[in-house]
Fold this sequence. Notes:
This protein is of the alpha+beta class. The chain contains 7 helices and 14 strands. The chain has a 10-stranded antiparallel sheet with strand order 3-4-7-9-8-13-14-12-11-10, with helices on both faces. A 4-stranded antiparallel sheet has the order 2-1-6-5, with no helix packed on it. One zinc ion (ZN) binds next to β14.
Amino acid sequence: MELRKDPITRSWVITGDDVPDSAPREESFCRFCPDSPAPAQVISNMSGLDGGPWSARAVVHPTPLYRIEGEPSRRADGIYDRMSSVGAHEVLVESLRHDRQLWTATDAEIEQFLLLAAQRIQDLKRDARFKYVSIFKNHGANAGQEFGHPTSQLTATTFVPRRVLYELRAGREYFKAKERCVFCDILSQELQQNQRVLEVQGDFIALCPYAPRVPYETWIIPRSHEVAFERYGLARPASMLDLAALLRRTLQRIRTVTGEFHLVLHTSPNTLFQSKSLDYWKTLDDDYHWHIEILPVIGGRAKSYTFKEVYYSPVTSEAAVKRLREAKIDG
Ligand SMILES: [Zn+2]
Ligand SMILES: [Zn+2]
Ligand SMILES: [Zn+2]
């Protein structure tokens, strides 16, 4: 596997003919359950709740896309750039229990998973090679789910993924023009208009974005301006219980429409180490704002949505929020 940069959009792609088999494997056991006969290699554990051995844990991905050893060794290839696929690829096991999902777990259990995510990001950002740490969850066959056990995944990469890069550039432009954070401005208008706000819990707001990429797209954003999820979560651990409750309830709502979704956390790139090539780092603390995006997968449109030239959503965010607000959930 290697990384190649698109010279036009300046975004990196991972490519290679030695792609690991990511299709769900038919195994007679689960490698993430506590009593697994072939357990994955543990990186860190969150302490157990109610006497359990652990509550959430990070393990090495059994078929990683990125390898932790070595240097990225970025090099030119004529006008192009390439580098080796150095990085980290972990599985974040959300629960000890095989049947406990983010929408059926207790808030205390989900809080442990969120704190694990924050700790892993902070830990990996100490590595100067890594420019960004992504956390995402693909749930459902059409969303690319890999494992039966409730899990999310983490990648630490030597580059910033393209969607985040677009957001960082846009945030910087907006701040340059207005000296305000675009996310804070979105939040204040959404709260004032109250047409696309799904729910408010503590410092967190769930909303359907004005221009959705897919039907029922939902974001969860903290009201307090903070660029980095991990800094927010570790400095205010009590707030993670609110985020847990809102995440659980939002996923319950989305599941009344579809059981399949992508979830991704967008946080700041690694700012512990200076980067010569990226000049948006100077105002980053002011112009970016961490958030979670949930992209439901509906019917056959699923696989192609990332390839569309223009996103098309047959449901407006105003209609989506109405249906999700009225959805019957467990509480
Ligand atoms: Zn399991
Ligand atoms: Zn902000
Ligand atoms: Zn985002």
